[in-house]
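User: Please go through the entry that follows and flag anything odd:
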Amino acid sequence: MSVKIAAVNPAPTVGVGVVVREYDEEEDKVGVEEMERRCEIGEGGKPSLVADLLGDPICRVRHFPSHIMLVAEYGDGREIVGVIRGCIKTVTRGNSLYVKLAYILGLRVAPSHRRLGIGKKLVQKLEEWCKKNGAEYVYMATDCTNEASINLFTRKCEYTKFRTPTMLVQPVHAHYKSLGSGIAIVQLNPKLAETLYRRAFANSEFFPKDIEKILSNKLSLGTFMALPKKSLPKWDPKTGILPPSFAIMSVWSTKQLFRLQVKGVSMLTYACCMASRVLDAWMPWMMLPSFPDVFRKFWVYFLYGLHMEGKNGPRLMKSLCAFAHNMGRDDDGCGAVVAEVGQRDPVREVIPHWRKLSMSEDLWCIKKLNYRSDEKCGLSDWLNSRPSSPLIFVDPRDI
């Protein structure tokens, strides 16, 4: 008796036929967009958050002066099966010391080509670019529940778990939020905002040296200060003397970067969410905790540089957050106000948010690439030193 064996296409082989190179917008744009669409399909019918990069795959790093995007090709057909993005910036590591730091984001590998070492190869090639351009450290951020990403970086690429900031998400409701009585909110010019931030975050980690470029970026909607109305007549910003109590923050819009959309929810969940939205619009005086319309494409406002001082600081910070919410309320299509702060930052306790939409820990992992001359002279390595401040400055360009 003879047995016929059906011919099958050979499975991709680890490390074979994979080429990593720099992204070419004219040649690769369509292939990258198709690969990322395949990555965004939720598994097992679970709800998923998908991103529309508005036809610009490199948008998430474009606003850094030094950035790159790499693609991984597989086989003779040069199919794009993976991408990774990276950038380099100069930031504080604490105590006003600056380091050249690389940031990795947007790592994607096509579902059909996972577990083949492509992700590791992309990371290694990006690290080579980082070293060549003088980066001393490189870090990445991921959801603390993303085991696949954590294992890739910590076990296979020798990264160290470093910091766990908190991601706080507040939906934009159909009603306005009260700012509170006796509170004035003023918009600061970029130069004054830069001065205040350099003072407030001098001892923090990850504060960018080019803060002035962030504040003047077209995506930054302004820097705002909240202070008691009774302090307003006495405060002269030209003197540099601050009010006894104040809070400041800046607002960054992702409207021109990308749009988000929730897909894969049940009809019941969709109906309940939309019903809460309708009721809130009909009866805004009830201040219902309505769910935003995240089932159509939306963008977010990212709050950065949040800082408060004085006994009234917490109340003033809440007022600023309500002000940002109301800005989003007036910007049709803004679905949420998002902030990310250090675990021990005092503002963490006063920023309004929904627990179900927020993350108590957003894991940052870091790796040392090059040695500095001052470390050879005895200064401690950043990886092994204790934070000099509870403050972490989260660069809005990182989101």
